[in-house]
Amino acid sequence: MNNYDIWFSMVKLSYKIKLELLKKLKNTEAIWYYSMTKSTYINEEIGEDKLKALLKSFWNVEKINSIKSIMERENIAMITYNDKLYPENLRNYEDSPAILFYKGNLEKLNKNKSVAIVGSRGYSYYGENVTRIVAAKLAEKNVNVISGMAKGIDSFAHTTSLKEGGYTCAVLGSGVDVIYPKSNTSLYHEITKNGCIISEFLPGTPPYAYNFPLRNRIISGISDLVIIVEASNKSGSLITASCALEQGKEVMAVPGSIFSENSKGTNKLIKDGAYPLTSVEDIFHILNISYVHKNERKYYFGNAMEEKIFSIVKYSPIHIDDILKGTNIDIKQLYEVLFELQLKNQITCLSGNYYVRIANSV
Description:
Layout: H1 3-10, H2 15-25, H3 28-36, H4 48-57, H5 61-74, E1 77-80, E2 99-104, E3 114-118, H6 125-140, E4 144-147, H7 153-163, E5 168-171, H8 185-194, E6 196-199, H9 211-221, E7 225-228, H10 237-246, E8 250-253, H11 264-271, E9 275-276, H12 280-287, H13 304-312, E10 318-319, H14 320-325, H15 331-343, E11 347-350, E12 354-357
Parallel strand pairs: 3-4, 3-7, 4-5, 5-6, 7-8, 8-9
Antiparallel strand pairs: 1-2, 2-6, 10-12, 11-12
Helix pairs in contact: 1-3, 3-4, 6-7, 7-8, 9-10, 13-15
């Protein structure tokens, strides 16, 4: 961290011009001295004098010291496009961020392949289940899981990767010190310990709505593959998919029910040419990583009634009244059996007295 890096992160210029300055002049200190001298840079988009005047106008010692103070207090680091730690997958785009702020371990990001998992905040159990399975399998193969730390699918992707000992990176639409949503405070701190949080926005920047489409291009940019789990026709996840396609990245989508609002966006992506995610093998095939499908886990039952009730509960939610119709036991005994199956992590209870089988692979 130095004053010149902080100053340059404050400068309001197009991504293209900021990258050109860094590529030609090598570092932010040289850019500052360029603005103070008669040396020429030659840029077609903006005149030399105007460019220098604009650069100088952002030099504000008080503001620089304020940001530096936040970074020191919050243990925030920063890198420029020319640093070795800069995400390799994010290079070579006209709108690559010239500077990134981060918390955590950024080094691992370049060591393994990365897959973005994004989707709806208003998720279904189906979407949650698929996300957890995919994130777990990626962690098992040392594939980085990238997402945006939003509620729903994003959070499940990060949480599962961490739980399975994987590496995960959250790209924020705010400053790296601004936790959003607040309900993800615990997750945020876990990621900083065992993964990385990055942002192109200055520390202290609130989560403005217009920041998130900009954030999405970084999610796709640092990834080798983007998976959209659930998305309505107006979901921000579709922006991430669009960014990925513009960047030449592969896009996968999880097929869903034609009656589900949360699957309209993903089904359309598939219709338009995205790879349908039908098994984890599909993912590793695209990543060119060998993968041997493991047999489904074996289920063990304490008695015949447990086995019968388990056979009624499928991977689609079923109401307790419908389970009751398929058995010849009273409701009290049914609840006891369902509770036992939940303790064995074979089924789970959803809101509204719906039950569903827990999958361990797709």
